[in-house]
Amino acid sequence: MHRLLLVIFFVISCPRYGLKKLPEKICIDTARQVYKQDPLYAYTLLKNINSPTYNQEKAKLLLKIYLNQREYERAAALLDSMPEINDLNPFQKNMLLLKTQRWQKLLTTTQDSLIKAIAYYRLNDYDRALNFFNPGSELNDYCILYQARCYYELKNFDKVLEVLFLKDTDTDYLQNDYRSIILETLLEIDDLNIIKNMAGRLKKKSLEEYVLLRTYEKKGWRRKAKKIGRSLIKRYPKSPGAYYALSLLKAHTRDDYKSFGKVCYYHNDYERAVKYLKKAKKDSEVNYYLGKIYYCKKNYNKALKYFTRSKRPSAYYYRGRIYEDMALYQKAIDIYDSLKLLYPQNTFTIRGQKRKAFLLEDIGDTLQAVATFLDLNEKNTKFRAAMQLYRIGSLQKALEILEEYDTPDFLYWRIRIKERLGEPTDSLKEYLHSEYPFSYYTLLKEKHSIPVDTIPIEIWIASLGDTTVSFSRSDSLHLKRALRYFELNELQYGEKELDKIEPKNGAELLYLSRLCAEYGVDRRSIIYALRLKRMADKQGKKRIPVELLNLLYPVRYAITIYEEKSEISLCLAMIWQESLFDPDAVSPAQAQGLMQIIPQTATLISQDLGIDDYTLFNPCVSIKFGWHYFSKLMEEFNSIPLSLAGYNAGPIRVRRWLAENNNSETDQFIELIPYNETRNYVKSVLKREVIYRAILNRD
Questions:
Q1: Where are the domains of the chain?
Q2: Where is the Transglycosylase SLT domain (predicted)?
Q3: Could you report the per-residue pLDDT of 109-122, keeping only the tens digit for each?
Q4: Is 279 a residue whose pLDDT tops 70?
């Protein structure tokens, strides 16, 4: 009891970030007690300790904090300066060196033969690597793949094929890697019989033909090469083989010009595509390709010329978009209506009708915009129609639409309308708060506290049903392989193995979430925690234990965020939304890293910061660049919601939306953001900022 009171005294006595300095003894004792629950607070205390008396204990605590926070570079630098504090277990030592790519040091410290193999491979010492990539383990296919890569780098192509030919298993998630090494190897050899025997292992007809094409070309068999080249161009115009075949062939007929032009179009070689397509027969397809090329080049007059001659639904849609950019709004609306008349069920028709509704908003015809949104008969378009009616004061009509759904957004705005109409809202509020306690509307707009339960998580799990963690033999093998991949820092392969496991109950979800967090795979840990929360929601359990909240919303990279002078809770919320704390994340738009920065934007940021050498997959760089960009948006918009919208959709769009809704309140502006993704992004980050603020304040 005395010890507990002492800890409470320390926590109360020690200042939070930036307050007056306390005696070092109190600070080291407090840091020791709180570093797990509040690593950032412990870090600020430890940084103020300078006495040699506490050097080792301070360093050991900092090391634990850095590892917990995934601040691997800091941890490695600390160990370099104070190797005597290294009491890490083998997994931690290996992981730290793998994460920081300290290959030479790994070779001298690790007892794991497969990690040695990886280190030798990364050091380009392929002969030695081969001594350690031993097939026959639980990662047999993985070892064979790396054996093949080693032999390829050594230019021993016969050995590559020998290794791959003997492979008798077929790990699906390694197929692209195998296909790549087989293709590269077959392009290096001349034996046609071997090539024909192995080409089938590519399991992709376009690649098989590409290999044969290159082989016939090397042997000088031009007729055969041309024949297969024409096949690639006709049947697989999007393939690399088709694009390569263009260098061997000449177009003679109008059909040839069309086929060649299509290949260039699909490979974004627009200059050559235009030259070919202009000599082709100008059918609807050719006119569309030419129109799209000029549209991408922003040569709208030429684009219109060709789009007008095409009957494709997409051609009509892009004509409408061009008229919008030319501020010919009525022409755009007429085109979208023609598209609806000609192709009523086409996806481009739906897109066109949405564009029409937004245009009607822009020109001030709100009621016609509302009618168009309602005619689309989608939940999102109905909500926007209701918001426009609310904006112009047609409260009763807006209320009728909002009563169609009982989701948080519809419930909240029903409450707002009923309040304006002087009608009771208590039951609606109670329903919103009880059914959706973690929603943006409950936490941010209604300012309700986070529904956390102090009950131990094991007891809470038991209330969900079966508490047995008992994986099948097959699932156990997948789990074993996943953990082995995690030990090798091959996280993407480990996650592929986890994809093959289907947890049967809440206890297994919790087990997997904890396990992934322990191995530093935060993204997958969060995903399992989200599944567990959804399972509880379905059983009507809305309050969650503290541990589940921490699994759902981990605090990582807090040291870097703090030292970048960022708003910690907001930056954590942005990282959660952008990448789920995956530093290797890459989006379909090629945004990279924790903060999901597009390389072109990163180039501008790097110039602004005077940084030449960087990688967006480095968490520290991603946070620095992302927060710098966000700070610039804050300077312009002076609003967190607007700056978040700019971060997601770009500042140009936000300026346009502001011009269109310059009198809207902030919450109305958010709801009227035209892009579903951006609107949801802003609300999600704001909600999670509230949660992270509560977590940090609680700690």
A1: 2-98, 378-436, 452-552, 558-698
A2: 564-669
A3: 999 999 999 999 99
A4: yes
